[in-house]
Amino acid sequence: MKILRYLMSITLLISVSSCEKWVLDKKPLNIISDSDVFTDEALIEAYLTQVYAQMTIFANDVNGSGMQGDGYVAVFELNEVSDECLPQWRDAPQSNAYTFKYGNLNINGGLLDWWGYGTVRVINMFLQKISDSPLSPEVIVSKTAEARFLRAFCYFAMAKRYGGVPIITTPQNVDDPEEALYPARAKEEEVYDFIIAEAEAASADLPEMQTGANLGRPSKYAALALKSRAALYAASIGQFGTVKLNGVVGIPSARVQGYYQKSLEASKAIMDGGKHALYNADADKTTNFRNIFLVKNNPEVIFAKRHDNISQFAGGSGWSIDFINAPRPNGWGRGMYDQAYLELAEAFEYVDGRPGALNRTAIQQGVHTMDEIWGDRDPRFYATLYTQGTSWKGDNLAFHAGLRLPNGTIQTAGSYQGVLATGNQDYLGTGFGMLKYLNESHDNMAGASGNWPDSEQDWQIFRYAEVLLNYAEAAFELGLTSEAVSAINQVRDRAGISLLTSLTREKIHHERRVELAYEGHRYWDVRRWRTAVRDLSVRWSGLRYILDFETKKFQVQILNNFDGTTNIPRFREENYYLPLTNGRTSNNPKLIENPGYQ
């Protein structure tokens, strides 16, 4: 988040008892008390800054920072555990998710784990102290709303992982009674009710928009976006899931329509507010879609984790997106970490609305131009993925994995009459890299000296297109089909693809898949729709290009079972909830483990 750097410094100073002097000529730090903190607005800001630093989940749901978070590859785990891509450093897979993708999630946990009660306690302490602060009522109200938003976000992060969790709203102390120290899990619907109520309350007291040094803090519309998303999750879990453990997991079907209505209302309030809109500044639709994620503070951004262009290793807030995922050249000779499956590429329709799936038999016959293979697609295809021939830094990427000679043989090394047999990219990969969020001006050779997590693109947590898609889904499930079609067509019109005249649930799911690819939604979406057993238990494919020397066209090979013959993707029924783990249930005997984990 873009929190003032001096506030970060203050936070660090507060935590170091050996420091002798505060730089702003305050009392020695080893005697700063709660009363000092909550009478000084700068210290209050610093206290809240601790919370942002602890909420690593703001970075695509990772559970660490630096090398364990968005400073390295962990930030991409959520992409890789879904059906979007795999981590394509085959000799040494770094991603934790790579292991769990193949049915290996068990009671020991480890996948996307985040038990955020340490952070919740910090927030609860803040809320307890701020109410008695001598600061102005306006400051108390706004900071209380900010803290309640952050706490609601923490609970949402836990609810979508574990279902029902204990709801703790006051700071626990070691001398508290046992029932306070060892709370039982609340019902899942109770947790979602709490999240929705807190987000709604926060929205009433947060500013409509944040500016200047406060960019990166939540606004009224960020709180409403949280309500929109959380209520939508609750509704779909109630509609498609099963209630177990007396409601600790699962939501009663009787609540479904009410949750859809709450999501609809929150989305509508953002739409009617007039402060956010789809980004539509560039005439070229592909360029426009790419710039949603490159132009800071554009009108589509509702809430984002802020980044600068200073390496995390040098004390900045840069991250690793470009160095890890950009095409070559690369300081490690690698890049292209997240490589998309062919199935994701095929999910992008033609501009006229025809399905985008290749005829896999016909495409492997003869040779084809790239336009014949991937031409006339939804412009979001070209802004989301890169492949053979994609323009990059003034050149075209070459993924061909062999050269077809005039005699019909395939040469896979060296060159033939000055034409290289293989391309300059990872031609043994899936054939597709992740282009969304990448900045062509970034120096991806800097990694040779270790100074590479310095990408400055902000990570968008809530954006307006998601709000429209949330609205469309809720409206459809409430029987408001025309309203749903109108909302989803706003997204498609901006994308530059034909509008829909009718709508099905499958079309809504499809639109989310292509619009929100690589933004941390897909894994949670297929879980809440309860389609993950089907959608994530698939032996996915890749694609290989062979360059024909004479025609300069391409022979195409479909690579089936790309994850390998032993790595078979498998999502089990119990994986709709993550395990609490033995460690947590042992520490608190009132915590019942989720079904299916022994």
Automatic annotation (TrEMBL):
Entry keywords, A to Z: Cell outer membrane, Membrane, Signal
Residue ranges of every copy of the SusD-like N-terminal domain listed in the record: 113-231
Domain of life from the UniProt record: Bacteria
Residue ranges of every copy of the RagB/SusD domain listed in the record: 299-597
Record flagged with keyword tRNA-binding: no
Record's keyword annotation contains NAD: no
Location relative to the cell: Cell outer membrane
Annotated family: Belongs to the SusD family.
Name the UniProt record assigns to this protein: RagB/SusD family nutrient uptake outer membrane protein
Organism: Sphingobacterium corticis
